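Case study B.
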Amino acid sequence: MTELISPQLAAPPTARPATAAANLASSAAAVSATSRPARTRSVRRLGPGRRLPYANLLGPLLLLAVWSIASGAGLLDPRVLPAPWTVVHTGVDRWLHGTLRADTTDSLWRAAQGFAIGLIVGVALALIAGLSRIGEAVIDGTVQINRSVPTLGLIPLFILWLGIGETFKVAIIAIVVYIPIYLNLHAALSGIDGRFVELAEVLGLSRWQFIRQIVIPGALPGFFVGLRLGVTGSWLSLVVLEQINATSGLGYMMFQAQNYGQTDVIVLGLLIYGFFGFVSDGIVRLIERRVLTWRRSLSS
Amino acid sequence: MAALAQQLNPGTSSTAQLNRPAVHLGALTRAFGDRTVLDSIDLDIPAGQFVALLGHSGSGKSTLLRAIAGLDHDVTGSGEIQAPNRISVAFQDSRLLPWRRLLENVVLGAPGGGRESASRGRAALSEVGLSGRERAWPRELSGGEAQRAALARSLVWEPELLLADEPFGALDALTRIKMHALLRELWERHRPSVLLVTHDVDEAIVLADRVLVLDRGRLSLDLPVELPHPRTYRDPQLAEYRERLLAALGVKEN
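Model:
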């Protein structure tokens, strides 16, 4: 940080060497910026600049701090929102002596099953629709209709069809997951650059080589967008499902807590949901960065 | 590098190649809707000849090249095309796949097994002066380097015919001069037939042994350029060719 600050102090206020130093990110650049005569025209940086370390954690930590201070200062009624330490205490207690562990594994297992099925179905349908005209004609319109029906509205029907056990929950989660994965992957597949198609023709690639070398890697960025939406969707639908028809799981725990007025348990459930959503999104992003090393954009 | 030249052209001497035509076009016609883009074109290119095709934009240059390459799927047309099996195309953009490293790009779809094609790819990269960059991502290359990599990709295919569609059009003037020398050098070594589409008159005269002018779908001039290589832009003898070509293109200087 020192090399970013020192030129600011040394240079006249009209010049904006901090921008130049941040661009080149080296002390040598900072030195040259200080020795350069004052520029009359400063360059405004329009990209968001360098990535902050652990930037993802900053917002949540800030929120936690505000919450703690408000609770500690007695600004929050514990019946409305209990203090963070109360929630943590309840969590530890229920994990060791209650059903929290079983509830969490049940929820995770449901989300994982639904997510896996949704992922497989979404990718398969997108590949069929994206790579063949007949597939597109049959699948795309159907999925678009499915998309416009609110999935949670299917719950009564699914209960009638599949019973009130685990199957219908997994099925609903799978539907919520497969739609964004399908939509984004299909859009990415049909948006493959025509110039690369031409190249593949010139190089005499086989259909399989074309798909493996050009179509799939080219569609991966779009796939990851859908994957992230799908991961979040799986948690979202889980919350609803477990509060309507369940005898275990985090949603059930929260539903029970509502009946007994246990705000801390409700907040605990919300926090766990949020934590899982945050972590799973982070994992997908990590994979994305690994797989798409060839990319360089504003986010890098 | 000479070893690669032998490897790429086993058993064929360049004189033997010159005896049979590499490309034969008979009454080639292409149209987009009502507009005739190529109007009954007859053309023979002997094997190993370096030909430049000049024309205004919209004169049908690219259409002709795409017809020979077999890339024109949805056009109406007639006529006869005979072309070699091994054709390489160099585009105006390098068209490297951004998600493949350089060596993988160069050997994309190349004949032969993995290890063989990899060694061929390395040889081709070193021929265009890019050895050591095998693992670079395309976005790390400059425009000139990317275009050299595209030439290397064309070489790996041991082409009998190289079709180049304004391959240097997007490069800066300095890089372009270097690329001219490189292309000519590669041609000397491998002797493919070349059809270079360009709108740059000087580029055509400096590089090619025969310059064609395409005007409103017809070949309006077929000019052999009989000057020794290497040629430079400053050579006063080029002026005469330049004038004839500009006249054929309907451009008046001063």
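Chain B touches chain A through 19 residues (CB under 8 Å). The remaining cases will be described in the next quarterly update.
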